[in-house]
Amino acid sequence: MSDAEAVMALQRAIVGEVLGDIPDGMPDIPEGTDVRGMVVACARHLAEGVMSRGLAPEFEATVVEATVIHALAASAVRWRECPLSQSHPEAGGQLLAGMISETQSASYRAMAISGEFRMAPWRAKEVVGYRDHCSDGRVDFDSWAEASGDPEFVRNLQAIFSRD
User: Closest Cα partner for 73 from 90, 92, 60?
Assistant: First the structure.
């Protein structure tokens, strides 16, 4: 198993917990990419595979950004689950530093959504429910909340997106 494949296995578990069913495939990861870069590339690839539908581009891009931040944080905590941790025990700290860096440069919305994912990852799968509630490239949070099994989570997302 290559380093990138080992990182992807961990990302499949982490991203799958928040976004549900994720696509197959691997991103192109250049030789010499550090662990942080591999985590970001794999998490982004998986999140884009789930979220990039063109239904509500701003919402989708923000959730992808939030998923990458979440993946860095969760990977730092769960680094020992990755076979690569044996040869790179220092990566947990690097991943945590990467999460801090990504968070500092992220939009408010992405930071807030990644916080929602960290606080209650079992609720996060509801985020893909937006697909049935889009019009003119925007999410209709009201209709989504009415149809949702977790309307509180949807209202939290609505509050995040209503803040300018």
Answer: 92
